């Protein structure tokens, strides 16, 4: 798989900011990377620790999870588990957020998971 390519049809998602970050066209402050995902700090953090985990394969949103690509979600959660332990926020807690669609607050059409921690997080979020 070449990074930045769509899961549907193989076309390059040239306007996708996360595909550009994965491809190295836009710099990021990386926390973790493997052959399936990239984790990096959010450029507009909402908590002392705020990072994102994105699959390298372009998947638009949670609505586009299929039998063929669903294993990426469990891999992302394993990666999050590793990172929160490395950042020493696992004991006090953290929040994992996935926004889906316009009403859900999704602003980048590439599935991604925000992880926020190192402060008390209120509910409801907004």
TrEMBL record:
CDD domains: PKCI_related
Origin: domain of life: Bacteria
Active site: 112 (tele-amp-histidine intermediate)
Gene3D superfamilies in UniProt: HIT-like
Ranges where the HIT domain occurs: 17-126
InterPro entries hit by this protein: Histidine_triad_CS, Histidine_triad_HIT, HIT-like, HIT-like_sf
Molecular function (Gene Ontology), one example: catalytic activity
Motif residue range(s): Histidine triad motif: 110-114
Name of the featured protein: Histidine triad domain protein
Organism the protein comes from: Clostridium celatum DSM 1785
